[in-house]
Write a structure and sequence with these properties.
Blueprint lengths: L1 E8 L2 E8 L17 E9 L6 E3 L1 H20 L14 E7 L2 E6 L20 E6 H16 L23 H10 L3 H10 L57 H5 L8 H18 L10 E8 L4 E6 L2 H5 L6 H4 L14 E8 L5 E5 L17 H18 L10 E7 L5 E6 L2 H5 L6 H9 L13 E7 L5 E5 L5
Antiparallel strand pairs: 1-2, 2-3, 3-4, 5-6, 6-7, 8-9, 8-10, 10-11, 12-13, 12-14, 14-15
Helix pairs in contact: 1-2, 1-4
Amino acid sequence: MNIQRKYSLPNCTLLLEGLSDVTRATQFQEMRPELSILVNAECYLSGYNQPLTGGREFFESLVRAVSGYAQEFLSSVPNPQAHNQESELVEFQKIDSNRHRLIIHSEGAPEGFESHSKNSKRPPIEIDLNTVQLFDLVEAVDQFFADSQTLPELSLELQPVTRRYGGASQALIRQAVPAAVGVSSLAVAAIAFNLIPPPQIRPPQPKADEQTSSTTKSLTPPVSAAATPVAAATPTPTPTANTKPVVKDLEALLNTVPEITDPSQLRALNRQVYNQVHPAWTKRSGLQQDLVYRLGVAADGAIVGYKAVNKEANQGVGQTPLPNLLYNPANRAPISNEPIAQFRIVFTTNGVLQVSPWRGYARTPEVIGAKITDPKITKGLNQKLYNAVRQSWTGTPTFTRDLKYRVAVNKDGVIADYEPLNQVAFDYFRETPLPKMFNAIYGSNVAAPNAKEPLAHFQVIFKPSGTLEVTPWQGYQ
């Protein structure tokens, strides 16, 4: 089972390729399998066309040297781990306050890198990095260590530097912090100055009860590049009696939290999922078969997990935007006991996106929120909405079937929400004035509906003949 993991920053990308240990993965159903056997590691640096490549020994040496040098740079206290030429493949040398030399003692230098050594049979590769490039490399390493599904047994111990040896000036701190754009890199700085305790090393944890998938070639990045403000170099500590383990498998998560089944809430979340995925799915050609996934969605619309339903989906996840749409714990509270809704999402070969509740609707959904029900007010708003839409609808329709929408307005007749009701309405929404009208008010076509005031709801039908129909909302059919 070939697996890829990618950790990307603006100036650095780490790409790891490897396998899952079948002796530790007896059940092939995990959403994101463990990469436990590293076959190849590639480090792409801005300004260089060719990556640095190597196997596990190279990668382990790289992360040790990067973390050790980052600590040395921030504390101004020498760290021998960053300069061990005798036992390490990778070392760092400081050139000046903004230039750092990365040296790789490899068996061969890739094209595009200059070698400065002429005496060695296998000359080392020497690359000069600026401080921003250095800390992007540091944060890429942090992302790797924060990903417990990649080489979980690999850990790195960072020892705090005692204060009496800390010679870094405030000027150096001010210089380093802007470069350390990631939360994890700032944690390295804190360790360097002994401001926080050293990280606790987590021993390898058994995987017998976890599920894995049978075939995966994933370009899935970690859930969040800066989601885990860990001190840069250790996986999550072993859960104790007072802490709950992080659940990453979708089915396992659903076994620990309530499930959202209310039809009205599912309907609203269905729209939020579609609005997230639809604009992000930019590469819609090249699919040989439909890709079908099962999604877990929190009550606020955050996508907290996905699982391939068919083999093609397992292999083609890189052709979908799902890996990039997983929720970022840096932007919201972590998922703990929040209720989760399940959806079926299909990326079809003809480029049409389909989203529906995993179990369907138990009954007909209703519109959520307070409603304007007074007949006189509703009648006036009906005419006001018709006039506004009719005046804005120009051009000759190219669609051949009715476009049906639910449109909600406030007491002043201003559009507060709109929703396509059939697939052709999704496909041809740009031929209607609704997105422009909505965008003019909220600055976005996918803004959350206004739920702070009562609304009047109508069904609006755009016909191929150019006829417009606006009638009071009778509910979902």
